[in-house]
């Protein structure tokens, strides 16, 4: 993998994204999405004893013990703040917790997704467009705008018909923010800027304001 022009720095937050080669569908069904979320949860940990495909077949008590031990050790490559899985691309908002943590985490999950999709579709080769893209988050304002951009992706791409339907879209972290059910994400950092989750939802729904600002903040979102 070629060396990055801009290094990924520990304790810094980044918008990470990538898309499929030739627009091939990746996150197009519930099984692949769930497998990807399993990969994110598993590979954000530093001490993973086996590949995810083996881990998922461990007995339930053994998996539970490993998960409890991992929580106690609190040794993660990254902290995830937001995500969205679209049919042919993904967005992650995360903080690097260890040197080279993002690169190791992304290598693991992209390889895991590639193996799974190739096996399921009986294809071979890469499915992502090379090296993932990264944009450094340099201010709290940028953090909030990028989180909104990520959560609005299904609406802006017409995957959901209206803004109200976005609240029920299950392939992003918005559900975790609005329902207090944080499974993968640390929601506290972003929600600390709002009175309550409903105020964050209002910020998300403020589409006219978002459209007005989109061009002026595009460089903050996609580099």
List the helices and strands and how they pair.
Elements: E1 13-19, H1 30-43, H2 52-55, H3 60-73, E2 78-86, E3 89-96, H4 101-121, E4 133-136, H5 140-156, H6 163-166, H7 174-179, H8 188-191, H9 197-205, H10 207-222
Oligomer: single chain
E-strand count: 4
Number of helices: 10
Give the overall pLDDT as a whole number.
Answer: 88
| CATH architecture verdict | 2-Layer Sandwich
Q: Which strand-content bin applies to the residues?
A: 5-15%
Task: Determine Rg (CA atoms, Å).
Answer: 17 Å
Task: Assign the CATH superfamily.
Answer: Transposase IS200-like
Q: What would you call the shape?
A: globular
The helix/strand class is alpha+beta
Polypeptide structure, described:
Helix content is 49%, strand content 13%. The chain is an alpha+beta fold and 223 residues long. It has a four-stranded antiparallel β-sheet. A hairpin with a 2-residue loop joins strand 2 and strand 3 (89-96). Helix 5 packs across helix 10 (207-222). The protein is globular and about 45 Å long. The model has no long low-confidence stretch (mean pLDDT 88).
Provide keyphrases for this structure.
single chain, 223 residues, alpha+beta, Alpha-Beta Plaits, 10 helices, 4 strands, globular
């Amino acid at each position: 993998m070629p060396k990055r022009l801009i290094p990924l720095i520990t304790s810094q937050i980044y918008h990470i994204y990538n898309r499929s080669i030739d627009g091939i569908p990746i996150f197009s069904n519930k099984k692949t999405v769930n497998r990807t979320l399993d990969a994110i949860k598993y590979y954000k940990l530093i001490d993973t004893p086996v590949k995810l495909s083996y881990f998922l077949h461990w007995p339930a008590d053994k998996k539970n013990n490993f998960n409890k031990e991992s929580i106690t050790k609190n040794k993660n490559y990254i902290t995830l703040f937001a995500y969205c899985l679209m049919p042919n691309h993904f967005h992650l908002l995360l903080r690097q917790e260890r040197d080279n943590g993002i690169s190791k985490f992304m290598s693991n999950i992209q390889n895991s997704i590639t193996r799974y999709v190739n096996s399921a579709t009986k294809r071979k080769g890469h499915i992502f467009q090379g090296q993932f893209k990264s944009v450094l988050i340099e201010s709290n304002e940028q953090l909030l705008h990028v989180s909104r951009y990520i959560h609005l992706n299904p609406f802006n791409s017409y995957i959901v018909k209206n803004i109200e339907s976005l609240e029920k879209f299950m392939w992003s972290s918005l559900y975790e923010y609005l329902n207090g059910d944080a499974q993968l994400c640390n929601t506290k950092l972003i929600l600390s800027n709002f009175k309550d989750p409903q105020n964050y939802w209002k910020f998300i729904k403020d589409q006219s304001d978002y459209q007005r600002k989109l061009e002026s903040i595009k460089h903050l979102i996609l580099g």
